[in-house]
Design brief:
Blueprint (H helix, E strand, L loop, with lengths): L2 E2 L10 E2 L12 H8 L11 H10 L16 E2 H10 L11 H11 L8 E10 L4 E9 L5 E5 L6 H9 L7 H16 L4 E6 L1 H12 L2 H4 L2 E7 L6 H4 L2 H6 L3 E6 L14 E4 L16 E2 L2 E2 L7 H15 L3 H15 L13 H13 L4 H23 L2
Parallel strand pairs: 6-7, 7-8, 8-9, 9-10
Antiparallel strand pairs: 1-2, 3-4, 4-5, 5-6, 11-12
């Protein structure tokens, strides 16, 4: 009998692998790697938890470690080891410390370490209000997983997200479509697409708007708590065609994953966090090769969704655009470029000065928009709370 070691095959408990054995509920992605890390995908097929892990991978700024084309892909294990060996000051950014911990675990995993990384793209163009990054993971069966990065800590990235409420396509969505089309023209195999947060939105958008010959090669798309779309996308033939291949996962208290509109069914995932913190994929509960499911989203999540949708419905696309422009003009008044900059004294002082001055009407636009949001929230509260 073959035995499979503990965390990615080194140390810890040991358990015989058998697809029929009963599974002890696992709490998170790292426990999943402890259970399945030494089992290649040829023996245990690709599953939604694998999809989430590879979706998170695009948050790592590998910089020049991963080639921008398909020539000479680097193994995930080698890329992870090289990245982690770099001094702190020379190492690319990650979304959170857990991303580095995940990289270290993947480097030791037979399931993930041999996979090839290639076709890395990272575009940040403030003047176009675009933040986009993606990476291709070459699987051992000859297929590829295209992983799209979610929103980073830049104000440009956050503004682009807000712009989805009044634009049929933001620059990152178009970049994602171009990325898929270019990759498919060079790679002959089947495709899987995925991402977390905005990355999930980009994956669905790119798949839905891709040419028919490309769509026919898509096995599945994994949208992990990503926002929805305008009707232009939802009514497109490509989106409707892919509905049975779209796998959308949202936590119980989802807010981001319920934004805008969705027509595809979704799976509600249990999380160890509360409220907005459930957006963190490391908090999602895992059992075997699947997520631990909840029956439905929480009442608070449902009410927040109704309030936001009601607010947006009461604003014209032009009014939404004006509100977003005013909000980010205020936030960047002190030359802030990241969310961390917003807490700096100079940024706070500049924002207060901008509000006090208000020669361009920023304060009035923001106040009017927030009043409308408060009214929508009050209306939802009255309808749902006895």
């Amino acid at each position: 009998m073959r035995w499979w070691a503990g965390i990615c095959g080194k140390g810890g408990w040991r358990t015989p692998f058998s697809p029929e054995r009963s599974l002890k509920p696992l709490s998170d992605l790292f426990d999943y790697l402890a259970w399945r890390g030494d089992i290649p995908m040829s023996q245990a097929p690709f599953n939604p938890v694998d999809g989430l892990i590879l979706s998170i991978l695009s948050y790592v700024h590998f910089d020049n470690l991963v080639p921008p084309d398909l020539r000479g892909p680097i193994s995930l294990g080698k890329a992870a080891e090289t990245y982690l060996a770099l001094p702190e000051g020379r190492r690319g950014r990650v979304r959170c410390p857990s991303d580095r911990k995940l990289l270290a675990a993947l480097a030791r995993c037979r399931r993930f370490s041999p996979l090839g990384l290639a076709f890395a793209q990272d575009r940040f163009v403030p003047e176009e209000e675009m933040q986009f990054a993606a990476i291709a993971v070459l699987l051992e069966d000859g297929s590829a997983f295209l992983s799209f990065r979610g929103t980073d800590a830049t104000l440009v990235g956050w503004k682009e997200d807000f712009s989805m409420s009044f634009l049929d396509a933001v620059p990152a969505q178009q970049a994602a479509l171009d990325y898929v089309e270019r990759f498919a023209s060079l790679f002959p195999g089947s495709l899987r697409l995925g991402g977390h947060s905005k990355g999930g939105n980009l994956a669905v958008f790119a798949g839905a708007l891709a040419r028919i010959k490309v769509r026919d090669r898509i096995l599945a798309i994994y949208n992990n708590d990503g926002p929805g779309f305008t009707r232009l996308v939802l009514d497109s033939p490509g989106y409707q065609e892919l509905l049975t291949r779209l796998h959308t996962f949202i936590p119980q208290s989802s807010v981001v994953g319920l934004l805008l509109e969705h027509d595809e069914p979704h799976t509600v995932v249990r999380s160890r966090q509360i409220g907005l913190l459930q957006h963190d994929p490391y908090s999602w509960e895992v059992e075997g090769g699947s997520f631990v499911q909840a029956e439905e989203i929480t009442p608070g999540s449902r009410m927040a969704d109704q309030a936001i949708k009601g607010w947006l419905a009461g604003l014209s696309p032009q009014e939404r655009s004006q509100f977003v422009d005013s909000l980010f003009q205020l936030l960047s008044a002190g030359e802030a470029s990241t969310t961390a900059d917003l807490l700096q004294p100079r940024s706070l002082q500049a924002a207060l000065r901008s509000l006090a001055d208000d020669r361009d009407g920023t304060r009035r636009t923001l106040v009017e928009g927030l009043i409308q949001l408060a009214r929508s929230a009050a209306s939802v509260w009255r309808e749902n709370v006895p």
